[in-house]
Amino acid sequence: MKLHPILAVALAVFVAPAAVHAASFEGSVRMKMSQPKGEAFEMTYRMKGGLMRTEMQTGNGSMATIMDLGKKEMIVLMPEQQMYMVHSLAAAGAAVEKQASDVTFEKTGDTEKILGYDCTKYISKSKDGISDVWVTEQLGSFAGLGGMAGGGKGGKGKAQTSGWEKALMGKDLFPLRVVVKNQKGAEQFRMEVVAVDKGPQPAELFAPPAGYQKFDMGGMMRGMLPGGKR
């Protein structure tokens, strides 16, 4: 079944660091991600006020997620099933905040223009390794990549939040380039923003499409229990 891998990544994206305030930037950001021994793929971020949407095509199918920072909830769209799920994010932030205690995030004096945006290089260190992170203050906050940046650590089927993602939690910093290295200095993961399109985003992109049905996990589970089909 294709449903479970897609949902696992979708949940991780927004259980990962997410600012609780609205980003000031409105537009879309397209990023390319790659690993030394894996195929590259792209993800598109769309931002509008306190709303964020990600779109991704993986080997398991297409995926789109919408996060409402004001309501602290996430909508997972399932295009192949013409359905959507709603998840509360209220408890997720506290859990990730605890995990961030083992991460350092140091600003360097290096600066660079990337796609016309002023970027500063930070170095993030954690037990998993070291990451060079080039961030800008001009694109609002970042909601994370979930297990996509694990540098191969997600092999056990669990999407993991990387150290640099934890470090960006709650900050108005958006990464335009990230290079993740292990303790020996070997590159494990690379993320680079390849396009930024600043401009109004259609409101309909931040709500389930017409005709999509809400998937009720609780109702499905109750229906599977003896005497639960009522």
From TrEMBL:
Domain of life per record: Bacteria
Residues making up the signal peptide according to the UniProt record: 1-22
Pfam family, one: DUF4412
Domain annotation DUF4412: ranges: 25-212
Annotated source species: Opitutus terrae (strain DSM 11246 / JCM 15787 / PB90-1)
Keywords: Signal
Cited InterPro entries: DUF4412 (IPR025524)
Protein name, per record: DUF4412 domain-containing protein
Classification lineage: Bacteria, Pseudomonadati, Verrucomicrobiota, Opitutia, Opitutales
